[in-house]
Amino acid sequence: MSTIEIEQEQEITPINIIRIGTGFWSAKPLLTAIRLGLFTELASGPLFVSEIRQKLRLQSHSSLDFLDALVTWGIIERDGKGFTAIYRNSPEANTFLNRRKPDYLGNLLEMVNDEKSSLAGNLKEVVGESGIRNSWDLNRLFTMVA
């Protein structure tokens, strides 16, 4: 009996490139929520949209889109729809994004996002000829986010 190997062609798509290249779109609402203290507020218990808007000083016309983006990514959870919805932290957000918890990761995420950081704001210079001396920092950043 002989074995016949059949090679299947794998379709080449841009999905991975697009996912990586647009990753900041999902990061910005998360980082904004961290800076606003959303997860720490929700750690006390679920809140209505109106309560979140008041506590975080959000505009009503954009608050639902902002919160629902976080729901879509599983960072917070929602019961109901529209302005009567109630939001609460996901288990991960409650553990890692609540400023009062010992495993809080918000500081790390804010550091990576900080525009004044040489790694976040000047990556082109870091990886270019003038940035060779910063290779250790670059390796550390990529290891943390990989």
Description:
The chain is mostly helical and 146 residues long. It has a single domain (23-113, 131-145), classed as Arc Repressor Mutant, subunit A. Helices cover 55% and strands 7% of the residues. The chain has helices spanning 15-21, 23-36, 38-42, 49-56, 60-72, 91-96, 106-113, 118-121, 123-127, 135-145, and strands at 47-48, 76-79, 86-89. The protein has a 3-stranded antiparallel beta sheet with strand order 1-3-2. Strand 2 and strand 3 (86-89) form a beta hairpin. The N and C termini lie far apart (46 Å).
Radius of gyration: 20 Å
Overall pLDDT level = 82
N-to-C span: 46 Å
CATH-defined superfamily:
Winged helix-like DNA-binding domain superfamily/Winged helix DNA-binding domain
Overall strand count:
3
| CATH third-tier fold name | Arc Repressor Mutant, subunit A
CATH class: Mainly Alpha
Helix content: 55-70%
Task: Report the major sheet.
Answer: 3 strands, antiparallel
Specify the oligomeric state.
Answer: single chain
CATH architecture classification name:
Orthogonal Bundle
Number of helices: 10
Beta-strand portion reads 5-15%
- SSE pattern, N- to C-terminal: HHHEHHEEHHHHH
Low-confidence stretches: none
Class computed from helices, strands and strand pairing: mainly alpha
Can you list the strand order of the major beta sheet?
A: 1-3-2
